[in-house]
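Anyone up for a design puzzle?
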């Protein structure tokens, strides 16, 4: 590629870049001198209890009341509860694991205290050992 052609391409890119920058700068500003809302005849729907929000609120309330009325009581043994209990670990196993952990933690703390309180034995130095 010749030098003249490279400089021509560079000049074209530079002018295109500056023009698009100027266009973007002026396009981002909006003229606030005009008022387009003089004849605004668009009215929103009247807010009332017929909106989707209130419909959904009523349906969810009815659903909650129905669930509360026909849900099983806490003392009933439901199929889901029995199925979950089948896959749970028995409490005796957890008690044994917790006891083993307690004993190992106690032993570790005893060893730590023993190491921290350890002292070198007293040394009797003689003045003339020979």
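Challenge accepted. My sequence:
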């Amino acid at each position: 590629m010749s030098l003249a052609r490279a400089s021509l391409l560079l000049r074209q890119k530079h002018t295109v870049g500056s023009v698009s920058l100027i266009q973007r700068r002026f396009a981002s500003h909006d003229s606030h001198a005009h008022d387009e809302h003089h004849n605004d005849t668009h009215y929103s729907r009247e807010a009332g209890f017929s909106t989707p929000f209130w419909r959904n609120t009523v349906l969810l309330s009815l659903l909650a009341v129905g669930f509360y009325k026909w849900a099983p009581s806490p003392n009933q043994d439901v199929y889901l509860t029995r199925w979950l209990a089948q896959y749970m670990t028995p409490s005796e196993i957890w008690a044994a694991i917790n006891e083993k952990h307690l004993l190992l933690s106690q032993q570790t703390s005893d060893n730590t205290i023993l190491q921290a309180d350890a002292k070198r034995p007293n040394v009797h130095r003689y003045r003339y050992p020979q």
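A detail worth pointing out: Helices lie at 3-27, 52-70, 79-86, 91-116.
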